[in-house]
UniProtKB/TrEMBL annotation:
The keyword NAD applies. GO terms for molecular function: oxidoreductase activity, acting on the aldehyde or oxo group of donors, NAD or NADP as acceptor. Residues 20-489 form the Aldehyde dehydrogenase domain. CDD domains: ALDH_F8_HMSADH. The active site is at 262. The keyword Nucleotidyltransferase does not apply. This is 2-hydroxymuconic semialdehyde dehydrogenase LapC. It comes from Hydrocarboniphaga effusa AP103.
Length: 494
């Protein structure tokens, strides 16, 4: 590894009450870089003491100046947070790149700008959304006025995954703060960087101490579980695996705390023969391989209408083989590594299962040859399979890697049936020039989000979330307000 690419080993501390603090226990765990497995940090492992301290800080903040700010004052501060993220853009890009190993271009054009955008959109939403009111008749004829106000829920526990750390964390922190809550974030143990950096941003712009807190740690029997079980946490918002969601839902049941979940997916792409072929290939390339396939909205099942099946498979193979795994700083790099050696084991086990279950391996299926220190990183080849029945493991289970299975179909009804044949219900992409069909099919797919002739085209005002085992609730625009506030009705006899 060249010296300019080496990173000093960092110390990731908790951010509680506006201070960066070490764990009382002194316990830390290692953060290794996905590109070359080099040690890049020691993360303080939060225990009950740190969670208790964060809850105290957050509850105190809810009694302090934060609670007395007008919406205008609060949202002005959130605009400053967004501006400060933009001012420290390079630091955020570097932190996220070190944590995830994904290419700089993706950080610069998508994931980091979204961190700033999340603060602006929710500042705008809370300023502009009205609540309902009714004029109510009464027997004396004078009537009554009913109106609703929104009040913050209190302290929100925010539990985050590793695949788009800043984007997914701020998607929850921004609306929570815009609504006047305080938050305690438990970032993924794989990606401590940007949540920690955001603490510096909060202090720099004058967010009152205790409004934004970060406790690092693991999930079960560690900071994650302690946070979700804490009676001082009013509600829990979580993005991550469906299995973890089930554990958190049980923890939330004590104290009847509300939960909002964005969970796993096994998303289908439906490619009709009348599609714009190049656009369908381009979109499918992104939806299968972006972020090395570690996108909850990504496509791991492609269904292609039979007349274009062979051409589609051949073209996708050619494009997948042209992807360039490499160092995130190299502009030519188009594919990053998986997040960790452990996750690579999981993805490779599916590559193995696909073979064992009789797949035709169109391309990939193994580990690419990487030179120098990159040889130690958690790389896998982009992989395409055909020929498996719908019962095969790689067709049914979420893999979260750069891979997909492609199946031919012969009718619209069959395509709909295949897309819906899953326990998940997060997203779908439909590729067709027939817009009547697009509307018809979209309405029949049991998912939270359908894209037609596009993928991951986001308008932050729209409802975002999953059906079936892909989630509970919707966040985005006004829908986030439903979770991060209580609606309080006031009835005034006139
Ligand atoms: N629907 C959506 O919007 C998205 C869903 N995901 C899903 O996230 C998964 C990948 O992320 P991972 O970090 O591996 O998920 P994960 O569920 O393993 O971990 C997510 C977070 O939960 C914490 N955690 C684990 N067990 C816990 C427990 N018992 N109590 C409290 N906290 C606990 C972890 O420490 C981590 O911070 C994939 O399944 C993916 O589909 C990822 C991004 C978006
Ligand atoms: O756009 C969103 O709000 C969510 C995006 C999800 C990802 O980026 C992901 O899972 O990687």
């Amino acid at each position: 590894m060249s010296s300019e690419r080496s990173t000093a080993v960092r110390d990731f501390r908790h951010f509680i009450g506006g201070e960066f603090i070490a764990s009382e226990s002194g316990k830390t765990f290692e953060k290794r870089r996905p590109t070359d497995n080099a040690l890049v940090g020691h993360i303080h492992e939060g225990g009950q003491a740190e969670v208790d301290a964060a809850v105290r800080a957050a509850r105190d903040a809810m009694q302090g100046p934060w609670s007395r700010m007008t919406v205008e004052q609060r949202t002005a501060l959130l605009y400053k947070v967004a501006d400060e993220i933009t001012r420290r853009f390079d630091d955020f890009v570097a932190a996220e790149m070190a944590d995830t190993g994904q290419p700089r271009s993706m950080m610069e054009h998508a994931f980091i700008p979204r961190g700033a955008a999340n603060f602006k959109i929710f500042a705008d939403v809370v300023k502009n959304v009205a609540t309902e009111s009714f004029q109510t008749p009464t027997p004396d004829g004078a009537g009554a006025l009913n109106y609703a106000i929104r009040v913050p829920k209190g302290v929100i526990g925010v539990i985050c995954p590793w695949n788009a750390p800043l984007l997914l964390m701020t998607w929850k922190v921004a609306p929570a703060l815009a609504c006047g809550n305080a938050v305690i974030v438990k970032p993924s143990e794989e990606t401590p960087g940007t949540a920690t950096l955001l603490g510096e941003v909060m202090n720099a712009v004058g967010i009152p101490k205790g409004v934004y807190n970060v406790v690092h740690g693991l999930g079960p029997n560690s900071a994650g579980e302690f946070l979700t079980r804490h009676s001082g946490v009013s509600a829990i918002t979580f993005t991550g695996e469906t299995r973890t969601g089930a554990a958190i839902m049980k923890a939330g049941a004590d104290g009847i705390r509300d939960v909002s979940f964005e969970l796993g997916g096994k998303n289908a792409g439906l490619v009709f023969a009348d599609c714009d072929f190049d656009a369908a290939i381009e979109g499918s390339m992104r939806s299968v391989f972006l972020n090395c396939g570690q996108v909850c909205l990504g496509t791991e099942r492609l269904y292609v209408e039979r007349p274009i099946f062979d051409r589609f498979v051949a073209t996708l193979k050619e494009r997948a083989e042209a992807l360039k795994p490499g160092h995130p700083e190299d502009r030519a790099t188009t594919l990053g590594p998986l997040i960790s050696q452990e996750h690579r084991q999981k993805v490779l086990s599916y590559y193995e299962k696909a073979r064992a279950e009789g797949a035709t391996v169109v391309t990939g299926g193994g580990i690419p040859e990487m030179s120098g220190d990159l040889g130690q990183g958690s790389w896998v080849q982009p992989t395409i399979w055909t020929g498996l029945p719908e019962t095969a493991s790689v067709v049914r289970e979420e893999i979260f890697g750069p891979c997909c299975h492609i199946t031919p179909f012969d009718s619209e009804d069959e395509a709909v049936r295949l897309a819906n044949d899953t326990q998940y219900g997060l997203s779908t992409a439909i590729w067709t020039r027939d817009l009547s069909r697009a509307h018809r099919v979209a309405a029949r797919i049991d998912v939270g989000i359908t894209w037609v002739n596009s993928w991951f085209l986001r308008d932050l005002r729209t409802p975002f979330g999953g059906s079936k085992q892909s989630g509970i609730g919707r966040e985005g625009g006004v829908h986030s307000l439903e979770f991060y506030t209580e609606l309080r009705n006031i009835c005034v006899k006139l």
